[in-house]
Predict the 3D structure of the following.
Amino acid sequence: MTSAALSAPAKRRLGARSSLRRNRRWALITSYVFLVIFAIFFLIPPYYMIVTAFKSDAEVAHMATNPWIIADGITLDQFRILLTQTDFLTFFKNTVIVTLCVVAITMVVSVLAAFSLGRMKFWGSSVLATGIFLTYLVPDTLLFIPLFQIVKAVGLLNSYWGMVLVYPTLTVPFCTWIMIGYFQSIPKELDEAALIDGASHMQMLTKIFIPVALPGIIAAMIFAFTVSWAAFVYPMAFLYSADQQVLTVGTVTSLIRADVYKWGMLMAGALLAAAPPLVIYAFLMDYYIAGLTAGATKG
Amino acid sequence: MADAVQTWLPGLQISARRSASRGLKQFLRHRSTIAFLMCLPLMIIIAALVIYPAFYSIYLSMLNKAQTRLVGLGNFTFLLSRDVFWMVVQQTAIFALTAVFFKALIGLVTAHLINNLPARGQRKWRGMLLVPWVIPLALSSLAWWWLFDPTHSAFNWIITGLGFHEIPWLSDPYWARFSVILVNVWYGAPFFLIMYLAALKSVPEQLYEAAAIDGANAWQKFRHITLPMMRNIIAITVLFSLIVTFANFDIVQIMTAGGPRNMTHVFATYAFMLGIRSGDLPLGAATSLFMFPILGIAAIFILRGVRKRGREIG
Amino acid sequence: MAEVALRNVVKRFDEVEAVRSINLDIPDNEFVVLVGPSGCGKSTTLRMIAGLEEVTAGDIYIGGEIVNDLPPKDRDIAMVFQNYALYPHMTAFENMSFGLKLRRFPKDEIKRRVDNAARILDIAELLDRKPKALSGGQRQRVAMGRAIVRNPKVFLFDEPLSNLDAKLRVQMRTEIKRVHQMVKTTTVYVTHDQVEAMTLADRVVVMNGGAIEQIASPHDLYHNPKTRFVAGFIGSPAMNFIRCHMEQNGAGLRARISDKISLPVPASLTARYQPHSGKALILGLRPEHLTEPRRSDRDQNCEFDITLDVVEPMGMETMVYFTVDGQEICGRVDPGSAKGPGEVMRLHANMNHMHLIDPQTDAVL
């Protein structure tokens, strides 16, 4: 064995290894470059929302300056006007009331139903579970016209209590569906052990299933919250006076007066209105994502 | 001992049987009663607020504007005879198909890009790229509208700065169509990203290792392992997104309200204009009902996919 | 403290009969193990005793009362599951006390009982941990503790050691035995592991295909199996089943297993097997009774030469495999005397431990 014979393959191996590493580095750099491009695309509107909300009216209206930055200094004027001279706080309060009620109703209804469908089974329960999933696929834009008549018939037209009535159709089916998945993933022996320990069905639910499936419950709650906070079709169709309006519709309609768009104030309103879901998302991202993906993977 | 057991048993048998009379059966019957009662609120909500309105909608669509008499299929034939309606059909199809295609594409690409990153950084990027999905669509549509504003468009500021002509984002019908699709892609792509990322993570690492040993390159790995393993979830997500996009309302309503010249109307906004704005509820109901067959077919395929996936996982 | 009795108990799932008319009497304080291959109905039987499955027909008695229709909580039983079934959100203490709390026991009584059980199981310092922070063996102890604190009439164990690794399984086996000696409660224990069955049980119930094959003490089961199934199921490696022909040889009998080899039936068994002379039967012989010729019980007539196929050294003994008439046979020899594969070795059959099986009925004669 000469040293040359040894070093040739060794060199080649060394070369291969470093080219492998180089390839990986390049793949990584390419990934980052494209991700930055996509991130810019995805984050432009929220960024522009923030920039506009902290500008003065004069700067917003000025057409020559760079609109992407705040040149004249940050001001909270837009927020001050929004909170003092408009109905924004009423919208906010209405939205909070509606959302809290809807989340509460949704969780009670869907946890009970999911426990029953996922664990106890009764005649026709599997058909019902499938039906629930199909219900989830019925979009709100298919139902808002007949619901208009129904909401009118029960006297809740132009009342945010009408929203408390109809929003659960958006939240309950999906929440039930993902809770069925979570409950079914709990081992069967756990409720048998509880049965032998002497728990009633209600105790089994409250003392075993709800605590064990807590991540699922949180994911479902976040979903219900996000959906009822962001709902747009129903309030657009059923609410028309400012004192009953919710944030989404209120921000895009009532704040626009005549032909003068107060964009600074509008963006301040949009920012504040989008803040609660964003804050929840920032703190509970994993639950949020779990809820999002559970629909297709569970059950 | 065993003999003793046998001797004292027969005497007890009758009295014991009576005392415990059908307790377990009662318990079981009781159990399914409770199960039924637990489901009752859900069933009431679905029956009263989904199934009943769905059927009521069919009845409603057969009334005249004042809802005083039945006109049969009159509303439907009226719609079919209108050019605007056919434009809505066309625009909805273009809107939904184009938007879903690009959402799926961008979702797939970004999911792969994130999956390529070292594990530590993935969370941060995923969190950032999901933001469009988290902002209520009505509010982000408002922001986009402002970005497209005819006189102050921040995009046009860049474009003219680069020496090009201003783009009439929302005032030209074709640009308006482009704009609403763009916003829909922006909003929906993160959903695909998350679904695909979850699916990518569920592909066992050993498969890729086995493929690498078999000599597969990156594209072959994607083609022969990733795609087949994700096929089902891709199908579910695409169909689901198709339903949601098809029935979308917020973006078009806020940015163009159907204009210019009704060129951007989709079913939902057109039904809203006819039913709520013009007060012809039956005609609006008829318009939304046209969505039903398409959504129904998509729903059936989704259900099949979900069941199949459930079986694969369980 | 109670007796358990099953009378003609049947369980049908739709069309499948999982348990077919079982009769079983378990006296007070006895440790009974139900053993059999998977799908033999042992777990279903246990679950019927627990009340987790309904009885299709027949009666189950606990402490002299028919409990067929009682829900599990009213049967005064406690159960330990294969996957422990500990409540993941509760500490060990809360897990153990949950049943007592639901039954509204006073706090100090609960504490007393849990502490007592924790002492027996040696888990006193783990009581405030959650299941996630416990090892497999510790979880199993907590699960047993949950059963003990209830002080039930009957303990039910459903394959409690199957999720543990081999070493821990042996350790926990001893632990279960020790606990049973301390708390003295009627126990029904289900396992597919015959070693577990043999080491733990006062009596073993061997089940197969939904029916009971034999109920006997471990010793009896090993030495006097009643059916071919039991003979083959108990003991490891399994008993050899060798086709043979019973031949009259003057006053004695010989079992001919091939042209070259025929083994004499010992005089003590001749009378018992005499009626089967001239029949084609199956000779059952455990590997441990097929050894190298040893000085003590040597009988020249029982020796024969064979060519080894496979040799498996196990340390303290060596398994040798060879073929007679197309049937693989296993012997268990001293490592020092074992030959290599392909070599000829002289083996000795201890015919005092022979079994004869009727191939038609599978009954041990």
User: Anything to note?
Assistant: The first helix of chain B runs from residue 2 to 19. Residues 1-21 of chain B have pLDDT under 50 and may be disordered. Chain B touches chain A through 99 residues (CB under 8 Å). Residues 20-60 of chain B form one domain.
